[in-house]
Amino acid sequence: MSFSSDVPNINQVTTGADINRRGSKRIGLVLVGLTGAAAVGLSVISAPFVLPAFRKFCLPYIPATTNQVQNVFRALHGKKGSLLDLGSGDGRIVIAAAKNGFQAHGIELNSLLVLYSKAAARVANVSSQATFKKMDLWGSKLADYDNVVIFGVEQMMEELGKKMEVELKAGCSVAACRFPLPGWTPIKTVGEDVDMVWLYEIPLSVTPTNSPGG
Prior knowledge:
By secondary structure, the protein is of the alpha/beta class. It contains five helices and seven strands. The protein is 36% helix and 16% strand. A seven-stranded mixed beta sheet has the order 3-2-1-4-5-7-6, with helices on one face.
């Protein structure tokens, strides 16, 4: 018995499920491509960035490494409540904080990085716990936060410490990355070299000579 050549070979039949799978794969590849392009674009824009994210000091955008992010949350283990990232860059600390149960907020002077961070928070499905605002550090109000994270430069840390002494509430924890706060005594440190995080607590870490009214 012979079959008509018009009858399709079962191995060549394309089902609706096959089409859906191929369509989903194409969409996934497009999304990956767009994400990659956005990341490359952000790197190109940020690489020559020496815009003063903190106005008084020239603070280039340098993304936190995986070890640095992990060390921040090792240092903050057991802490809870609100968290502020000063100079939040691409948002990775704020997004990680939201995933760790904090109500997290980032302030950043670079408008492009703020937009990128908001988009990244939506992709991570934490946009209600991770918020961002374009703002200058020195004009920010710190009193309402339970935890503060700062990836600073050495030249700014002393002046930042003075601002924190005046504004931070008792019990607030401060995680300083890359450089310590001069004159402050950490309650613990995590990591080493460029990945080190110094954890401070108000008022325990502020020496009498540096504390307000001291």
